[in-house]
Every structure is written in C-alpha cells, then in structure tokens.
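Assemble and predict.
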Amino acid sequence: MIELQNVSRSFTVGDQQVSALRDINLRLDAGEYISIMGPSGSGKSTMLNLLGLLDRPTSGTYLLDGGNVTDLTDEQQAQVRREKIGFVFQSFHLVPRLTAAQNVELPMILAGIAPEERKQRVEVLMQNYGLSARADHRPDQLSGGQRQRVAIARATVMKPTVLLADEPTGNLDRATGWEVLKLLEGLLEQGITLVVVTHDAEIGARAHRQIHMLDGAIRSDEKHVV
Amino acid sequence: MKLTDTLQFAYGSLRGSPTRTLLMILAMSIGVASVVVLTALGEGARRYVVNQFASLGTNLVIVLPGRTETAGLGPGMLVGQVPKEITLDDAQAIRGSRAVKLIAPLSVGSATLSRDALNREVVVLGSTAELLEVRKMSIGAGKFLPAGDIHESTSVCVLGNQMKQELFGNEQAVGQWVRLGDRRFRVIGVLSSQGESMGMRTDELVIIPVASAHQLFNTSGLFRVLIEAKNRDFIEQAKSDAEAIMFQRHAGEKDVTVITQDAVLATFDRILTALTMAVGGIAAISLAVAGVLIMNVMLIAVAQRVKEIGLLKALGAPPKQIRDLFFAEAALLSTIGSIAGLVLGYVGSTIIGQIYPSLPVSPPWWAVIAACGTALGTGILFSVWPARRAARLDPVAALAGR
C-alpha cells in the first residue's frame, strides 16, 4: 500500500522555482493496476521517481506499506528500492557488457544473494519469459521486445511489491508493445502493484485505475471495473 | 554485495573497455618497473663497491705514514720536517697487539722486469708471506714468498699472471730467473688471475720480499702496513693499538694515519644507499603520475557509465556500494599494473645484469615493496574522488544520462 500525503516537488531552474508536483494526495492499494497519463511536463515522471524513491519530495510525506520512507537515509532508501520496488524503463537500461542472464542476476548480486540461488532464480525467470535460448546473448544481440522482457525479468527477480513502468512500450512497435504489456499485466496475478506511466491513451485505458495529470496536479482519478 | 561479486563486477567493467584498461596497466607497470630497475642499478653499484672492498681483505686496518690533517698544516711541516717513515721494526712491533692476527708490510716501487730481450715496466710490491692471506690472493703455480726473517733479502719473486704470460708465454716460469732492476730474482710462484681489486691489478704485479724491495729501491720506509684483526670485534682495538704503538715508537709524535676498511666501507655504503633511495624516489614520481592518470581515466569512466550508475542506484545499490565498485576497479588496475611492472622490472634488471656481468644487479626487497605499495596506494587514493563522484550522482539525472 502506497500513500502520498500533501506531496510537492519543485525544482530551481535558473532563478525560478518550477513546481513539478503540487500538493498531491494519493493512495494506491496493494495489487492495483494504475496508469498515470498526461502530456509531457505534467509531472507524471516526477511522480514515478518519487514513488520509486529515486527522488525526494520538497514537502509532504510518503508512506510505503505503512512506514514513512520520506526521511530515510540514502542507504535505507536504497534497501527499500532493492526489496520492494522494481523499475521498467522506456529505454530498457540493460548493462551492455553483461549477458541477458547476467543483467537479470544484477539486483541479486547487489543484494548479496548466494550464487547458487541466483543461478536458480535466473533460470526459472528466463524460462518463464521465454528467454532461455537468449540467456547468453548480450543486449545488442537481442530484439527490442526481448530486451524489455529481460528488463522485466530483472525488475521482478527480487519479488518487489510495486512495479513502476515508465513508458514500457515507448521504444517498441505496436505488436511487441502489446506483448510486453500482457507480460506486465500477468504479474498482477502474483499480487504486485503495477504502475504504468504513459501518454498513450489506449495503453492507459487498460488499467483498472486511470490517473490523468496536468501541470503537476491530478486532474482526474477514475476507477474502471474490468 | 559480496566481495567476490564486487571484484568480478569491477573486472567485468575493466574488460568492457580493454584499450583504456591496457593503457592504464602499461602506465602503472612502467612506473613500478622503473622503480625496480633503477633501485636494482643503485643496489648493484653499492654491492659492487662493497665487494671490491671485501676483495681487498676482511677486517683490515691500514697504517700509512704521515698524518692526514684536515685543519691545515701540521706543526712539523712549517720547519721543514717530513713525517717520520714507518720501518720494518715498527711493523714488527705492531704484531705485539693481541688484536692483530696478521701483518703485511708493504713497500711499493716500479722497476724494469726483464727476461732475455723482453722488458716490462712493472709495479713491484715488497711484502711478506702473510700478504697472501691478508689480501686474499691465490697462487696459480709454485709457492708464495717464504715465511722467515723479515729482514732477510732473498732474491725470489712471485709474478702476476699477466706478467708471467708476457714473459714466459706457455713456458714453465717457476724456477726460472728474471732480472728486476739491477738484481736477479728466481721465480718461485705465479699468482692466479684475479682481475682488479681497488684499482690495483694483481695480474700485473711482481711481488718480492720486503727487504729485497728496500735494497732494490734503496729505501727503508714502508708504503703501508696492512693489519688483519683477529675478527670483526677486534678491528677498533687493532686500530687503537697500532696508533698507540706508533705513537710510542715515534717518540710521542702522532705521525701516522690508521684507517679501518670498515669505516671507509660504511661511508661508501651510506652514500650509495642514499643514492639508490634518491633514484628510487625519482622513479616513484612516475608512479604518482600514473596515479593521476588513473584518476583521469576513472573520471572518464564515471562520465561514460553515468547511465549504468543510475541503473545500479535504481536497482537498490547504496552509495557505498557504488564507491566500492570503483575502488575495486582502481585496486584491480593497480594490482595488475604492479605485477606486470614487477615482471618488467625483473626482466629489465636481468638484461642489465647480462650486459654488465660485473655489476650484481638485483632490486632490493624494500624497493619492490615500496614500488607495489606506492602503486596500490596512489591507485586507490586517486580513485577516491571519482568514486565519490559516482556515488553522489543523482539517480534520476544519471538514468537520463545527464
């Protein structure tokens, strides 16, 4: 469960204060499927960064699973990211010199998990995502869809409670994009909270809860029963 | 994150940019190698000098006539006095000291050595049987000067190896007669070839009994008296005894100089060790330069891998872990560079040793440790800033590649 209370974020650009988020109040329940939509500059990326603890709010409080994570130190926030949050990026962000399997293994290396367990978990995931044949390929030898599947495998290998996807289909063609989206939606069955940021209305419409943003504020927050 | 994983990851990123990594290792290894080679040369020079002194004889105390005054003229010189010479009896008197093991009086002159029509201008050394052991000479054929009365002027001589070759060729020399100045001497021995020792080529010498030398050159004074102390602990006593005996015999005048080989040797040792360290220090500067290079390359690496650092942060790597990854990279580079440098240095020293076989070239252990230590130290020290810079990157900006 995620709760934002009166969260604001402003940046200093030159000598001007620019508000990216203004006094946001939002509550996401565990297992929800949320899309955040809006034009560029509406604050949806800033919102995602705040939710992912990559950025700190200028004011307000962020509660994650009931605990206040706003005032944690960098080290503690890193631990929360490691254990509870998974990221999927528009440009995949795979490490080019590592193979697909090694990229998936990376979060577990950072967490200090034993090599035997790492190997086993990577194998299972690669199998589930149909990547077994591509395990030893480097990212530049993979197609866009395969790369994003590797990225999703990496995001889920630590079994996070929240998965934050920033334009996950933005660099993919339509068919591959749908495949990737289906894969993400499949994670909902495991009880993950899925947050997808997009400016594609068609993709956003698939979410059970759609949040539209404009000028750093939530303009609408609609729930659809599917 | 486990240490092995950290190292493996760092190794992976080094492999990721092989040209840069190789160049860094090259810079580091040249630094280490130059420390190793230069100190090896310095140490070789030091050992060379020490060996030269050792070949002169061990536990040696040398008495020479005249007082070496550092503060101007001695009082005697003003009234036209020359220092009193050291006589054979003086040398015999020194034998009375219980610290003395052997004594070899030395009288030096030059004369024409001839056999039939062959002439050679040679350095003639007048001494006694004990010279053989004091100067660590060895006999190639025949015998050395016979022991006996020091005042007895027998007409026998011992030839240096080269003199024998020039006069006799491959003929038997022992038992033959040669002429030295206006006297005839019978060859009783030939020295084995020994090369140079402290500027005196024993191969080109002719050695005759000291009393014969005095007659030949019409002198009564000695050039030097070589004293071998019983052992190392007796050197100082032998020196003071010699001084006291000479003081007494020369009617209360201090007109001889007594030097110990140890004192001279220690001075050379100190000078050359200081020189080696200075040269090593200069070479160490190149290591510091390599360190700056590492910093530069690490900064570039941080800039190039900004997205990767952002990703690691998003995946939950705390700042300390990112710092450690860059430290590990620097440490790996320095270690590989040091090892390569050591290999290079030892190969270089060996080659120099082959070119100058008389120079005992070998890098001193302290220089090897210092070189590797400096390499590792500068490598890690100069990566502190780049590593901190990486650790402090803002994850959002880093992910965007800014």
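The first helix of chain B runs from residue 3 to 16.
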